[in-house]
Amino acid sequence: MTGPTLQPDVLVVGAGPVGLTAALALRAYGLPVTVLEAGPEGRQRPGSRAIFTHSQTLQILDRISPGLGAELYRHGVYWNTQRTFHGGREVYAKTYPDPPADVYPHFTSLPQVQIEAYLYARALAAGVTFAWDQEVAQVDATDDGVVVTTAAGRRWEAPYVVGADGSRSVVRKQVGARMEGTRDEGWYVVVDVAEKDEPTLPRERHFHYAHPAVDGRNVLIVPFAGGYRVDLQLVDGDDPEELASPAGVREWLDAVLPPGYAERTTWVSTYQFLQLVAHDFADPHRRVLLVGEAAHLFAPFGARGLNSGVPDAEAAAIAVAAASRASGAAARAPVEAFALARRSAALFNRDAAGEALAHLRPDAATAERIAAAAERAPDDRSASEWLEKAPYGPRGVHRAETVYRY
Ligand SMILES: Cc1cc2nc3c(=O)[nH]c(=O)nc-3n(C[C@H](O)[C@H](O)[C@H](O)COP(=O)(O)OP(=O)(O)OC[C@H]3O[C@@H](n4cnc5c(N)ncnc54)[C@H](O)[C@@H]3O)c2cc1C
């Protein structure tokens, strides 16, 4: 007697937030999934990183794992007051009304490590298999499937592979996808500080142009569950290593935060604005799909990293589910559609991040415009709103996100 034919697992490479989302979404479509992760089981990843989770992201997570978005929302913090300063003077302030109890507000804010913990717990409960210490080194795709080989020589076979192995993606390189775009020369130092038992910082988002306490550098302060993230924008001639050193951080952080926060620093990192998008989001055989930072790298301003990786992951799962039900040339179509739609969304995000950058590292004309707007604000509402919104680039999401439904 023969039993039912076992369907081979779809492989997801990378157990970051986007890989975990892809695994959950694939399970939601009934597909068996194994996640191959280079890191060890129980690893602790550092830093707040993708704190700002949009309501659309929460909705997608609810779709693929009912109640997950709500769980993240309950754990995160929401602030409804935003302030912008120029040279220490307030040029914009807005307090939004509290959202209705049954609707997500625009966002919730919690550290990426906690988002990953919720995703991981859901993935285990959904029956995802995890294989840790599996550093993928080689990916060979054909029209019939994919063979993945790890650095230790272990071989895995799969009908489809979702590459979610982050910014230095081996999967991307193996399938011949090229990153296209630019890296800006400017540097930022990012620091997490833990909340005090008796907080002295308001739970508000503050953006400072030309903060007078740090020689006119720009500073962004954003709350998240358990603390605050502070971004310092360096100016030409600054040494990122010096300003990210324990003594350097202490000095500038003490200047921009109330006393007692600098010694509560839990994470320090530096970054540059990258605006890179893979030339193709799938391999030529349409068996390997790239998602998250394996496919695109954006500047943190505007919170487009995780918030675009989650729709990538859902779209990849929808495409794999549809392709798995088809055969021959028809199986290519859903993957084609995924690659086109998500690349187009990534180009939109890359350009939006580019607009933010043009504002944060202004040419002479934009610098003059910022100074003139700061003179007129807050009495001139349009100048005030422009100063508030421009550092994050245009709002909104790429409309093609609703295109694929099979
Ligand atoms: C300072 C900073 C601030 C940020 N702020 C924000 C923000 O406010 N909002 C936002 O949306 N985003 C933000 N981001 C971006 C966000 O962190 C990323 O978008 C997110 O981590 C990408 O998730 P990912 O799953 O694609 O990749 P990753 O999180 O990098 O996960 C990739 C996984 O793949 C594994 N891996 C790598 N290579 C291999 C291999 N060869 N084989 C097997 N496994 C492998 C890695 O170990 C890792 O677990 C920020 C990033 C930084 C650095």
UniProtKB/TrEMBL annotation:
The cross-references to Gene3D superfamilies, in alphabetical order and at most eight, read:
3.30.70.2450, FAD/NAD(P)-binding domain
What's the domain of life for this entry? Bacteria
Its protein name is Monooxygenase FAD-binding protein
Species lineage: Bacteria, Bacillati, Actinomycetota, Actinomycetes, Micrococcales
Q: Which residues form the FAD-binding domain?
A: 9-327
Report the GO molecular function annotations. FAD binding; oxidoreductase activity, acting on paired donors, with incorporation or reduction of molecular oxygen, NAD(P)H as one donor, and incorporation of one atom of oxygen
Q: Does the keyword Oxidoreductase apply?
A: yes
Q: Which cofactor does it need?
A: FAD
| Alphabetical list of InterPro entries matching this protein | FAD-bd, FAD/NAD-bd_sf, RIFMO-like
Organism (species): Cellulomonas flavigena (strain ATCC 482 / DSM 20109 / BCRC 11376 / JCM 18109 / NBRC 3775 / NCIMB 8073 / NRS 134)
| UniProt keywords, alphabetically | FAD, Flavoprotein, Monooxygenase, Oxidoreductase
